[in-house]
Amino acid sequence: MSDSALSIGLFYGSTTCYTEMAAEKIEAQLNEIFDAPVVSVFNIKDTALSQAENFDILIFGISTWDFGELQEDWESSWEDVYKLNLKDKTVALFGLGDQYGYADWFQDALGMLHDALSTTGCQFIGLWPNQGYEFAASKGLTEDKSHFVGLSLDDENQYDLSEQRISDWCHQLLDELA
User: DSSP 3-state assignment of 130?
Assistant: First the structure.
């Protein structure tokens, strides 16, 4: 894929800034990999989700709240997810959650977003292995339960692993886009 015309839209919702910080790290990593400013970042609190239709490659970031709930900005925009036309678009997801405090709902919002976006015609990339996490249940797993449907971050308990996970995932996305 030619990076000269590459444009990636990264859309996230963030309450406590952790998802925002992860989005900024992903943006910086991808811009470094491509040696160009290829990522445009949007907080869905301030930007309509329909803007996602302007990009061929998309990254969506979401955190799971309380007992498997959506982050508040995503909850406010949830019906808009189903209205998106992402036919022929490539989508990667990342999620934040607390695997120990909410082990029965770890990355549930990630799975809910994946399921909702599955109705929009997009193609997914960026599955992430579930090794290295301890949790009881998750809606964010693939059908065979071997991977998360996107990058899984736990800045509450594994903050020291997030930077490397982001780097590895961004390089994985590059390989999958090639």
Answer: coil
Instruction: Report CA-CA distances (Å) from 165 to 47, 55, 84, 168.
Output: 27, 25, 29, 5
**Alpha carbons 157 and 82: distance in angstroms, whole number:** 32
- Which tens digits make up the pLDDT trace of 93-113? 999 999 999 999 999 999 999
Domains in the chain: ranges and CATH: 8-177 (3.40.50.360)
β partners of residue 60: 11, 93
- What sign for the dihedral angle of Cα 97, 102, 104, 109? negative
| Tens digits of residue pLDDT in 130-144 | 999 999 999 999 999
Which token pair is 140? Answer: 């964010």
Report the run of H or E that residue 37 belongs to, with start and end.
none
Q: Which one, of 176, 178, 175, 174, lies nearest residue 39 by Cα?
A: 174
Q: Which position has the token pair 């997009």? A: 122
pLDDT (average), residues 51-74: 97
Q: Report the distance separating Cα 90 and Cα 55, nearest Å.
A: 9
- Tell me the pTM: 0.96
Q: How far is residue 22 CA from its own chain's centroid?
A: 10
Token pair 């995503």 is found at 74
